[in-house]
Design brief:
The complex is a heterodimer of chains A (318) and B (290). With 318 residues, chain A is an alpha/beta fold. Chain A has one domain: Alpha-Beta Barrel (TIM Barrel). Chain A has nine helices and 16 strands. The relative contact order of chain A is 0.16. In chain B, the strands form three sheets. Chain B has a seven-stranded mixed beta sheet with strand order 10-9-8-7-11-12-15, with helices on both faces. Chain B folds into two domains: 97 residues, Translation factors (Elongation Factor Tu (Ef-tu), domain 3, Beta Barrel); 167 residues, 3-Layer(aba) Sandwich (Rossmann fold), CATH 3.40.50. Chain B has 290 residues and is of the alpha/beta class. The longest helix of chain B has 14 residues. Chain B is globular and about 50 Å long. Classes of the chains: A alpha/beta (318), B alpha/beta (290). At the A-B interface, strand 5, strand 6 and helix 7 of A face strand 13, strand 14, helix 7 and helix 8 of B.
């Protein structure tokens, strides 16, 4: 494989990323913070913080607590609302140089449609990522995206309204992710981000209190990698042609290559970016090194290379 | 803000603390009192986030030019425990200087510095800069025990008067900084006040300053994820300058120094009661911290 033919670019169903290593939602700041810490032209893409229709002050503090190889956190989706986002943050984020995915979150179908409509005319938006781990106000469900009928309704509405590819970020820690994944794709999602942070609780023994101000939170960080690998693996076997973005526990090039082998098309780095803002560049470098070592041309060539024992039903999808 | 792979020049035990000096000229050149550093933890451990330390000393001139000093409380967790055991000539991954530091008074001259525990480290840096600007510096330094009073001799060197208080009375007066603050302020003719302490102490200091009509700046402690503005976890509720309401501002970018008159203390404290404070509350209230 001549070096000049080798590429890190990936096409996720209509959105092309220069590398498969993105910054996950809520870890890219507002377009100013990363200046001087990472060259965003060398980052595959970034996902905005999750934007809601109305401004949200966010959760009580403390909002973060460490756990073994991870963090339990809850920001309560603090954000300035879609109008302020479109006016200020979006242009700044996009100017920084990486393809910009906008994460949208709501409690009702109407909110998701309003958010998507507000982004329709914005050329800066490369894709929409649909946050589905929040509360469903209409149906009174704790986690909106864990219920097939609501997932279909909301992802379908966003996909029909959006002019750019739509990625459904399925909630983490839910049962039967393959069914949810199929439903989201049938409803019109271009691809899937797998997965959102699973729900978690941290306790401070010394005080007999929850460690977070809002009591419960979400788990992120390296502890999640095996969960992400399994989810990516199962969904990619079921739907090998659907672009999957792995999210959860990825911080090194090796982590990313493992995810690509398991079936991911790209990866997102969240907690890893908080610790090392240049991590997405390092991860891309690690993927490039693996491609070279294996004599492969592009990240997509790693997909499906996981050497499985010859079990017929598994081999069929690989 | 710069990221550097910085060599440890020296590390030494100072009472209850470990003081670490780094060679990081690019960061030292830019550092202002009140700003802080985000230090990476070692690979292969199960604690992953950077740790954050206010800057105790940044030398731009002389034999120590290009060095930075920060102070670690080894007892506060596995990360600080690890850091206090790191030896000279090892390297740390450091991002800094971070946050907005203290600003210096233009017209007023009599400055009171109020510190609790490790908070004294950053205020000594501030004191030096104030003295260099021909300001009068007085201090009130508090800590739980004698060992936790940070460099009391340094405090004496930098200020006209120093009042030391410890919770157990092992050094100076017995009590808290608020017990001695009114008298110290009256004696020094304080015109401006600076403080670095736990949230509840800062709230009491803020109240005192409001009553006394003393302009103040306080450096807050809040749990941080990244330290450079990405994760929005270290927020403090601050009243808007115009219109009603408040914003949850990030301590790492919009702080850690805030105008205490605009911090919504009760909202924040209800949220931010720190581990140590709550542990004490549990001990004294027999298990019900309310």
């Amino acid at each position: 494989m001549p070096a000049k033919d080798r590429t890190l670019a990936v096409d996720l169903g209509g959105v092309t990323l220069p590398t498969p290593a993105m910054i996950a939602a809520g870890c890219a700041g507002g377009g100013r913070e990363l200046a001087g810490l990472v060259d965003l032209h060398r980052v595959g893409g970034l996902v905005s913080r999750t934007i809601t229709v109305h401004p949200r002050p966010g959760a009580s503090t403390p909002r973060i607590a460490e756990s073994p190889s991870g963090v339990v956190w809850n920001t309560g989706l603090q954000n300035a609302g879609i109008d302020a986002f479109v006016a200020d943050e979006l242009p700044r984020l996009a100017r920084a140089g990486a393809p910009t995915f906008v994460s949208i979150g709501g409690g009702t179908l109407e909110e998701y449609v309003r958010l998507t409509s507000a982004l329709q005319a914005r050329p800066e938006v490369a894709a929409i990522e649909v946050y589905l781990s929040g509360r469903d106000e209409t149906m009174d469900h704790e986690i909106l995206g864990a219920h097939v009928e609501r997932l279909v309704e909301i992802v379908g509405a966003v996909a029909r309204t959006s002019l750019v590819p739509v990625f459904a970020k399925l909630p983490g820690g839910v049962a039967d992710v393959v069914t949810l994944a199929r439903s989201a794709v049938r409803a019109g999602a271009t691809g899937l981000t797998l997965s959102g942070s699973p729900p978690a609780l941290a306790v401070e023994l010394g005080t007999l209190r929850p460690a977070l101000g809002d009591v419960t939170g979400w788990l992120s960080g390296p502890a999640l990698k095996p969960l992400t690998l399994r989810t990516i693996f199962e969904v990619s076997v079921a739907m090998p042609h659907v672009p999957l973005i792995a999210s959860g526990g990825i911080r090194t090039g090796s982590d990313a290559v493992e995810c690509l082998l398991a079936g991911a098309w790209a990866v997102q780095i969240g907690t890893g970016s908080l610790v090392d803002p240049a991590a997405p560049v390092e991860v891309a470098r690690g993927i490039a090194a693996s491609l070279k070592a294996l004599g492969l041309r592009a990240p997509g060539d790693l997909r499906g290379r996981l050497r499985l024992p010859a079990v017929p039903d598994r081999a069929a999808g690989a | 803000m710069k990221r550097a792979r910085a060599e440890i020049l020296s590390t030494r035990k100072l009472g209850a603390y470990q003081s670490i000096t780094l060679v990081a000229p690019e960061i030292a050149d830019r550092a202002r009192p009140g700003q802080f550093l985000a230090i990476s933890m070692p690979a292969g451990r199960d604690f992953v986030l950077r740790r954050h330390f206010s800057i105790h000393q940044a030398s731009r001139r002389g034999g120590w030019a290009g060095t930075l000093e920060f102070v670690v409380d080894p007892s506060s967790g596995p990360g600080t425990g690890w850091l206090s055991g790191v030896a000279a000539h090892e390297f740390l991954d450091v991002i800094g200087p971070l946050g907005k530091g203290f600003s210096f008074p233009k017209r007023l001259t009599n400055c009171m510095l109020v510190a609790e525990g490790r908070g004294a480290a950053e205020l000594y840096f501030l004191a030096q800069e104030l003295v260099a600007r021909h300001k009068r510096v007085d201090m009130v330094i508090g800590a739980p025990t004698m060992e936790a009073v940070f460099k009391p001799i340094e405090a004496k060197r930098l200020s006209q008067t120093v009042a030391v208080v410890t919770a157990d009375g092992s050094l100076g007066e017995k009590g808290s900084v608020l017990d001695v603050l009114p008298e110290a302020v009256a004696r020094a003719g304080t015109e401006v006040l600076y403080a670095a302490a736990a949230p509840r102490t800062l709230r009491d200091v803020a109240e005192f300053c409001a009553v006394q009509r003393i302009p103040a700046q306080v450096a807050v402690e809040e749990r941080m994820g990244c330290g450079f503005g990405l994760c929005a976890t270290c927020v403090v509720p601050v009243a808007r300058k115009e219109g009603g309401g408040f914003d949850n501002l990030r301590a790492c970018v919009e702080g850690p120094v805030f105008n205490p008159a605009r911090v919504l203390w009760d909202r924040w404290i209800a949220d931010a009661a720190t581990f140590r404070e709550l542990r004490q509350a549990v001990a004294t209230e027999d298990g019900d911290a309310g």
